[in-house]
Amino acid sequence: MHFPSIIALLAASAVTVSATLDPCTSNTKDKAPASPACSASKSSSDIQAAECSHNTRVSGTQTFAVWTSTKTNSNGIEYGTCKAYTCAAPIDSEMTAEEGAWTFFWGSGGEDSGIGTDCIKDPNTTECGCENSDGQFIPGSDSCT
């Protein structure tokens, strides 16, 4: 048997980034929870706000996610960190002003309805598209799986 090969394959599949197309239903820009009721279940870095708002990142029920801007690429696309949570979403009085933060809710907890962001953009061409759950970007599409 080839145990080292099997172990390497299992380890590689364990670190695969996955996201499921499931857009948030409300959002609050430039605010973040002062003290979330739990630790983030998943943290993803170097992603667009639209990736954070359009996709869930945890197994189970994602209740909210907080995206924080960290950089802008040469094409003007902002990137940041998305932290996804499964505990009770914060209410407005538990939110604090934070420039560059964007909180997305899978429920009605946000100040604005809908996703709030633009589309997910190709980092090289800025063309709109979507991303399949395996991470593959599909330019010009809005029907990823």
Name the strands of the widest sheet in spatial order. Answer: 3-6-5-7-2-8
State the helix count: 2
Q: Beta-strand percentage?
A: 35-45%
Gap between N and C termini, in Å? Answer: 36 Å
Mean pLDDT: 87
The ordered string of helix (H) and strand (E) elements is HEEEHEEEEEEEE
For the largest beta-sheet, the strand count, sense and barrel status come to: 6 strands, antiparallel
Q: Low-confidence stretches at least 5 residues in length (pLDDT < 50)?
A: 1-17
What is the strand tally?
Answer: 11
The proportion of residues forming helix, as a percent range, comes to: 10-25%
Write the layout of secondary structure elements.
Blueprint: H1 3-14, E1 20-21, E2 26-33, E3 42-47, H2 49-54, E4 55-56, E5 64-72, E6 78-85, E7 95-105, E8 112-113, E9 120-121, E10 128-131, E11 137-139
Antiparallel strand pairs: 1-4, 2-7, 2-8, 3-6, 5-6, 5-7, 9-10, 10-11
